[in-house]
Amino acid sequence: MKIIVLEHPRIRSKIRFNDIANTPLWSCLMGGYVASALKAAGHEVRLIDCTVNGWDFSETADEIIAFSPVLLAVNCVYIWENSGAIFAFFQNLRRAGFRGHINLFGFYPTLAYRTILDFSREVDTVSVGECEITVKELASCLETFGSVEGIAGLAHRSGEGIRVDDPRGPLRDPDLFDLPLRADGGFRTASILGSRGCYNHCSFCPVPPFYNNGPLWRGRSPENILHEMNSLVSMGIRNFYFADPNFIGPGKKGKERTLRLMELIRPLKITFGMETRPEDLDEEIMESLVSSGFTSMLLGVESGSSALLGQLSKGSTLNGSEHAIELCRHFGIEPEIGFLMFVPDSTLSDLGENLKFLRKNKLLNRLDRTANLFSHSHIVFMGTSGYRRYEKEGRLTPAGYQGFEGEIEYSDKRVAWMRDVVVFACLHVLMESASFDSPIHWRRPQEQGLAKKVNDYLVKMFERLLKNAESLKTLDDPEMVKKDIEKEIDSYG
Ligand code: SF4
Predict the structure, then answer these.
(1) Which of 14, 73, 159, 261 is the most buried (most CB within 10 A)?
(2) Can you tell me the distance from the alpha carbon of 80 to that of 101, in angstroms, rounded to the nearest whole number?
(3) Residue that terminates a domain, selected from 294, 323, 339
(4) How far is the CA of 302 from the centre of ligand 1 (A)?
(5) Atom 5, ligand 1: which residue's CA is nearest?
(6) Distance between CA atoms of 301 and 218, rounded to whole angstroms?
(7) How far away, in angstroms, is 202 Cα from ligand 1 center?
(8) What are the mean pLDDT values of the chain's consecutive 10-residue runs (493 residues total)?
(9) pTM of the entire structure?
(10) Containing domain of residue 326, as a range?
């Protein structure tokens, strides 16, 4: 049966361009995994990856109409304020006469399947949770003209409204998944998924609800990962990035597995990066990672305030984060830091603790990093435990496309004021650094000293605003403060 698996075009957000929280990193491989499961089941599958071929929605629609698949399975990714373009694309396909079944899978449709099926009549079904087997069962049902009812994990419309007849439990052994198909496109760094899920329950994260309370973390065997890496190396790939939400698994077993994997990949002489929790690193692991080609790390630190770490259900400590940062540096790796500066329940003292933590750990000395660390706010998506909590407390106003995000009322108005002003300043700086004509364009030599000046300005500005917010009874109009800051930053040019 003819099937298209689609990674749809991504339109860059004008407001959230520095935010990667719209989807967990590993969703970049999801279409490839679904395509390979369908291919293994004997279907004629085309994987169209618009993130690789650069097609827009109109070019993609022409291709779909021409191929005329029975099933169009789409990894639907939330693209902030541009998400409506995806659903307009489905409408256009139908108007152009496309009669195939449209199924959505991925993080966004899993968390928002009810809203999507309510809102978009063009979408027939949504695969909720781990999707490979659900989409495969849907395809075999469409091939035999069977009913879509009774497929575990498949949300569909029925006489009783929108239903998922049974939840789809995640597959226990991730080695059983076929290796993902990859679109041709001469990529230099290959993303790879060494494990699925996470054993933590951070209240803002879409990973735990995606797996529907199934096994929390499942690692592929080191041999299975090596098999995939070997085949990519034979295609000329030398750089890898592990897209796992949590690369190093839990406890002693997780550590042993990582050490074994490192032993196996060491002879490949490749380089790789990954993301992990600070608590999972120790000297032995670091030594083994670095000797196997490890070059880049994103550490999920999230906060410099221990009170907030507890509220985020992060299960980490400040000492653990500081130790992990030191350990990385000791082994020559400068870690990038996942950090939430503004959280709806932050106090001004939490902001002060954040500033102290970032300074103490020498994380405020590079302009792009400073601007990013200062500007990330807590984002709350539908379907996460954080969203439910704020909704229950009556502090959530649906926002974003079809209410997928929650606008949360901050408990301290002064923190919300700080967020408005600081985020504005940092985004202004980040936009400037992305513009080639700007003197602080990130590719221009740092010795010009300008980037350092702007960096120091941002740090001092944060400190000054914090002091003002602590001492003032009435806060200045944020728009006026923003104008002053904009003028000051522009004067450095
Ligand atoms: S540690 Fe928290 S944020 Fe990171 S993947 Fe796990 S649940 Fe998500």
Answers:
(1) 73
(2) 25
(3) 339
(4) 10
(5) 245
(6) 22
(7) 6
(8) 97 84 91 98 97 96 98 97 97 97 98 97 97 98 88 94 92 96 82 92 86 80 98 95 92 94 98 93 96 95 89 76 96 95 95 97 94 93 93 96 96 94 91 76 66 90 92 78 80 72
(9) 0.93
(10) 186-339
